[in-house]
Batch of 2 targets.
Target 1
Amino acid sequence: MCTSIRLMIFSIFVLSISLHAQNIVVIVNSENPIVNLSSIDLKNIFTADKAVWDEGNSIQLVDWKIATNVREQFYATILRKSPAIVRKGWVQKIVIGSIYPPAVLSSESEIIHFVATHRWAIAYIEKKELPSTVKTVTLDGRMSNDPAYQLK
Amino acid sequence: MRADTLYSLKTKFTALSLLIVVPVIFIFMIYYPKQLSIIFEDALLERYTEQAMAASFGLAVGLSTENYTLIREGVAQVKRNKELLYIIILDTLSDVIAVDNRTEYFPDVVFLRNLPRIQVESSIVRLRQPIIFEGNLLGELLLGFSTNEIDERLGEIRQLSYLIGFSSVILISFLIWIMTSKLTEPLVKIAHAAVSFSKDEAYETIEVNTKDEIGVLTRTFNAMVGKLNDKTSALLESKRFNEDLLATIPSALVTIDNSFRVVSVNKSFCRLFQVLPNTVEGHVLQQVLENLGFPQETIQSILYGKEFYDVEIRLPVNQSTMENQPDDIILRLTLTSIVRHSVSSEQLKSMLLIIDDISSDIKAEEERIKLIQELNVSTTKINTLSGLLPICASCKKIRDDQGGWNVLEQYIHDHSEAKFSHSLCPDCASKFVGDLPSINKKSP
């Protein structure tokens, strides 16, 4: 019973997101050597299943605060989980102590600033002009202007 | 006569004190860790509860604002506790949000949900802490802590209390021993002094400076012994005087008690019978007299006769203990009873046997009698020739008591030891020679 209610809520959530779809880009610090991420890696990073970069450095995750369109769109398209489920995963990981918890910020400028100041940080924002200290990474080898880009 | 160490006052005091103190210490050793464990357990539970509350507050804020840092800090609050066994976060529907199970102490969640807020089990403390933010229940935090810390601390407390307890027993025993030694020291001194005093050894005054009952006792004892010493000295002096007095008495004296045992003998007795006092004193009179060679009928008379008895006996030479005695001994025995009164006015009956060696007296008497007899005879004889003798003026015959006339020579011969040998005096001789000239001429 509980699970069906949750599924229903999630479907409504995904539908509502699709109505307000925006072009989202994944950003990292410009010093981070990463240039491309697969959508699975991205999902694993944001569901706390992947905690380190390929070079072995801990990933410093940045997320949006609750109930923002960008976050809801990102969760619906990439993570394909409700924020509650994702949060549960994060809480579980935090409780176990296996990962560094994500920073939850409320504005784009804060997020950009965080990524710019943290070398191994990763975040997602609406596509826009970025400072030189931050760069976007391709998703599954596709740029954000690619029609097949997943985060549209 | 020395107090047995096992039963000495010091041992008794120490044992009694230990009998009181040791159970108290043992009760302390049991009671103290128990009380401490309760206090310690309460303190620990309070600490765990505080940690759970702090964690739930961090979780509440973190979950409601999705501030993972706060969640992490909240969790860290309890995870810093090394006794933590498990941490479970439930949502409002009691679904598990997160679990960190460090050990096998992770039971069924349904079981945990139905537990009271705090449950202390044998090896685990289980806590349930609601996660509430601004009055809204967000979930529940379930924590399990090991009781190892409590157990370890209790073990330490127990060990410490045992150490303190046993050390206290040893220390208190030592202190009690010293204390009782100090307390009983004057009593021990008094006891030793009393023993010495009873053995007629020199008594040294006990030095006790305390003003308590023992001090009073000691001073009184010293005074008492001083008086006793004075009286003993006086008695000894009196005894010596009596002994000297008895020694000067030539009669042999034997003091006998009412059970016919020899109490004492004087020097004359020893001298007479050539025995030592200790071979006689304390012995049964009958045996003593038998050994001395007294006739059996005399002994029986002394033992079963009258209170006053006076007899002379003769001890044959071969039966007497006396050596170098050429003749039989003649003894005069006089038994007289003595009634004395003790200090408690009790009548004490004893007897005195006086033995006099009258052998020489008897001998002297016999000699005297003989002499008298001889003297009487002589006197008689002298008396025979004394007095006025009627003698014939002519023929010189003497008239005897019967009126007969006896020749002078015959009369004197009959009435004296004198004997006559006939001869001529010069006058008679000249007279006769004159008648006989031939004879006279031949004479020078």
Target 2
Amino acid sequence: MTDEPSNDEQLETEIRGLLAELGVEPRHLDHGPGEAERAETDLAAILASRPDARGRAASRTRPRRARTIGFFAAAAVLALGLVVVRPWAGSSPVMATTPAVLHLQDVDSQLDGGSASAAPAEFRKLAAAAATQQPAGDGPVQAVTVSSWLLSTDEKTGKAPPKSVLTPVVTEHLFLPDGTFRSIERRGSPLDTSGRLTEPLTSTKDKPSDTDETFDGPEEGPDFADRLSRDQKVLRAQLVDSPEECADTMAACLASRVTFLHYNYVLEPATAAAVWRALADQDGFTFLGKTRDRLDRPAVAFAFNGAEPGRRQILLADPVTGALLGSEEILVKSSAELGLKAPAVIEFNAVVRSRRITGDEVPDPASTTVY
Amino acid sequence: MWAVDAPDFEEFFREMHPRLVRYAKRRLEAESALDVVSQTMQTIWSKNLDSPGDDIANRKLQSLAYRIVEGHIRNMLRANDRFRRLTATVADAQRTDPQHVDDIADLVVRPDGSSWLSHLTLTDREVLALLADGYAVAEIAVILDCSPAAISMRLQRARKNLKLILGRRSSDD
């Protein structure tokens, strides 16, 4: 027999009892006088606010993705109080040009074609390549640098339509051994009218950061990736801990966990290999052939349906090292809501660097804002 | 869309307002708690999000509301701290902020080295702080945006750690 409580209620009761022994008593936080009236006043004021003063957040589905990046979004809220720059904020029509769709070997710009049957074997090739790599450094700090871009919308343009520009962003994620997470963001110049970068994505390194924030990292801790199983079946269960959320979009869910891992942690070669094997076991991926990524690196590409209809997502990997190079989201059905004609690249992330570094290589702690 | 379907937002508001106020009152006095919840609701309204189409989406939105209110709470506490520092030269620097209620949640953020809480991990402390304030597993999962199973697991671990601490205490006595 075990003394483990058999259900949550018993567990809660027992722990509250233990806390009481330590002098922690429940406080009275329930409804106070005047709160109901205040709520009604606030609600009326909010509903009366002008609808055109409201922003537009177009992509709020993709439940798991929202969860994984929620950590960073929460940090942004902590830092700013208001989110002023975010992907696909602002009202339509969007007045920015999206980057050109990558030229993919085996498919057209709508991502039609490719081979679903080839995907598992190609994933396994990546697994084999990843398994033979040397660990990326041995320092205690995990440093991952990701290039992406944001749609920045100026919503304070009076009666004029909101002005939107696409801005490349290089974000350095530093996961420190004490569990804190530092995010240093540098924004480049907006894309030109053809949607091309006006400066290389990686050239912002010497620029002063636009934001430099440190906050408590995800609850899983800095060694989360190291604790993951190298058995792909166990690993998959560890990554998709709420399968009910992913019932119809398992490929997208699994892929979003995979990109979350790669964009925040430095994976050991064996873990990186297991990740690819987990993807190989999952239906829903199509092999798109060879291409070159946003940083002009040779890559192979895989597509899968996004959680939202009319969108396809792409994973890009280095066929030689088995490294994940990045991901993209493509609108394959024109959207009046977004003011975009398909095909349109609506998001991309490219891993610039993923390496364990020493504390000496971490930028001066005095320059970060700690939350 | 809430842009054309305010009743959906109203329903959300009526469900979440008391829950968010209760959450904010853990760290702030009642009036300030009402202020940050008002800001939170305004933030969510201004995001112009789609109405949640199912239970999962609704839960996500509730988690988002908790994250936003937590951000506003911290902003307010930081502002209070800044104000206190600014006035420290003309007032008693040790004076406590009248809006700031010391409680277990504060220990989570700024653990007292001598406290028994310092023996627990940050995650354990976070969950225990919520449990101590009367939250059940399901609601803690919404607040921390993870599955109830994950919270149960953390509570099991926290329970073991608490028992260890109590055991050490009794053997010290």
